[in-house]
Amino acid sequence: MAYLSISWFLTRWSNAIFFVLQNERYKLHWDMLGLKDANAGRIEKRKGWMALLLSPCLNTVFTANPGLSFAERIERLGRMGFRAYEFWGWYDHRDELDALRAAQEEAGLQLSCFLTKSGVLLMDPSGHAEFVKELQRSIKVAERLACKRLLVTAGEERKDVSRSQQHRSIVAALKAGAPYLEEAGVDLVLEPVNTLVDHPGTYLSSSAEAFAIVDEVGSANVKVLYDIYHQQITEGNLVPTIVANISKIGHFHAADHPGRSGFGQGEIDYRFVLAAIGRTGYTGNIGLEYIPRAGLVEAEKDLARILADYSRYED
Length: 315
Description:
It is built from 11 helices and 10 strands. The chain has helices at residues 2-33, 70-80, 97-107, 120-123, 128-144, 163-184, 207-217, 228-234, 238-244, 270-279, 296-310, and strands spanning 49-51, 53-56, 84-89, 110-115, 149-153, 187-191, 222-227, 249-254, 285-288, 312-314. Helix 2 runs parallel beside helix 3 (97-107). It starts with a helix and ends with a strand.
């Protein structure tokens, strides 16, 4: 028993020392990079290095400890040195909004993105009025949480109407919502997802169609969420597609493939991809939407590793 107690004690202290060193290491990175106002998304060049603003998703990166509240997750991200975060839907957390705002202000984080109700509402004109109503509600929540970006996804492909009709329905829904976004100064990003592994049956998987929809909507406040993981599965050709369409991209999501794992655990060369994104002049967030493979301690170590190793690139 004495041996187990000593072993437990040493393990706890080694983990504590690890996080202290990682925090100090990352603070040094911020100083070296000259990032003066991470919350505002400003990037300044110093000594040949550029910074990227990583935004962990509360729903995915803490799956090893689902008992943590959102406020507790935000506090942990702040201690690690992150400056942004995101989550999926706000509806299940409607009673926590004030606590979330207080937690993000205390931790020095900005909410970069969250979902508004969409899906099936985009796929049929009969759902457009409800979509706009829910969008207006989400804009009010975004204002409460000082967030400037909302996310939508298409619903399942309908078999009773043509794809061209469904395409036009999505365009019409987003056009109907655009004036409210423009008035509030909030962006809406449309995310195509893969249908091979994670979302079989979903209508929108092609980035090319997503970019075409954005062009047809014709609002500066409606863009594409380019999910690097989903598009690696769907079509590959990541960097040329991103560079050619960067003006239409309002947010990124990232995870490695296969397994929706953390950076460096799959086939995507994230150092190369993130450097290419940074060199376009993109100043938004890179959402971390991967699922950790290990328990809580190892998962948080992996977050610290990604923050230290992938939050900057050499210009």
